[in-house]
Amino acid sequence: MTDPSDFTPNVDKPEEFSSGVEENDPVPALQSGEGLPYAPINWPKPGDIWGWRVGRRFNTEGYYIDRYLYLPSSLHKPTVSKQLSSKLAVDRYIQSEFPDADIEEFWASFSWKVPALKDSAAVPYSRFSTSKANTPLNKEKKKFTRQLQAEINSNLSVIQGIDNQIAQLQSRRAKLSEILETKKGFVAKLSVDEQVGNGKTTNEIELNSEKPE
Fold it and tell me: 69 near 52, Cβ under 8 Å?
């Protein structure tokens, strides 16, 4: 059996069922292989044969939960993982690298479901010690959720900064309004004093005019 950690598909094998298994035949836990029926062949180019591997856990229908695809050597890149650990990861890879590809046709070319050989190595999901949150698909969801939460926190931080600026502007406005009212009071008082002064001067003139010469 191929060591899963170093597994690389052999693109030199011409036969379709290069894995040595037939579709719907139960597969032992941790089994790996290449090509049909559990991995694509001749995709995206003729001669490209993908690899596959299963884990230990299987669901109530008898199919493995932990399921992996391995890229053919022609698609290897330093910046792209050779192992795709879920259908979601496969979808994202194809959409990223082959945006014009027919994803439905890709999935129809092989069987994603792998029946488990229920021996001592394979473990029913209900008996597995870890929670459902540890499946590859849910790990992808957790990673995406963490990214979204980080973006939310960043946006909240920006909003908090804006709120702080608004609070500072409101405080400055209140102070300016207070100064403005004080100045208005001074102007009003000065106007009253001026009117009183003018009235006093007029009275003095009238009184002076009434005095005999």
Answer: yes
How far apart are the C-alpha atoms of 131 and 159, rounded to whole Å?
A: 37
Per-residue pLDDT of 34-69, as tens digits, reads 999 999 999 999 999 999 999 999 999 999 999 999
The C-alpha atoms of residue 150 and residue 47 are separated, in whole angstroms, by: 42
Based on the number of CB atoms within 10 Å of its own CB, is 140 exposed (0-12), middle (13-18) or buried (19 or more)?
Answer: middle
The string of DSSP codes covering 124-166 is EGGG-SS-GGGSHHHHHHHHHHHHHHHHHHHHHHHHHHHHHHH
Q: What is the predicted pLDDT for the residue at 59?
A: 92
Cα–Cα dist 10/47, whole Å: 10
Q: Tell me the residue type at 213.
A: E
d(CA 49, CA 40): 6
For residue 30, the SS3 value is coil
Helix (H) or strand (E) holding 201: helix 136-210
- pTM exceeds cut of 0.70: no
Q: Between the CA of residue 39 and those of 1, 7, 50, 121, 130, what are the distances in Å?
A: 17, 14, 5, 22, 27
Tens digits of residue pLDDT in 171-186: 889 989 889 888 888 8
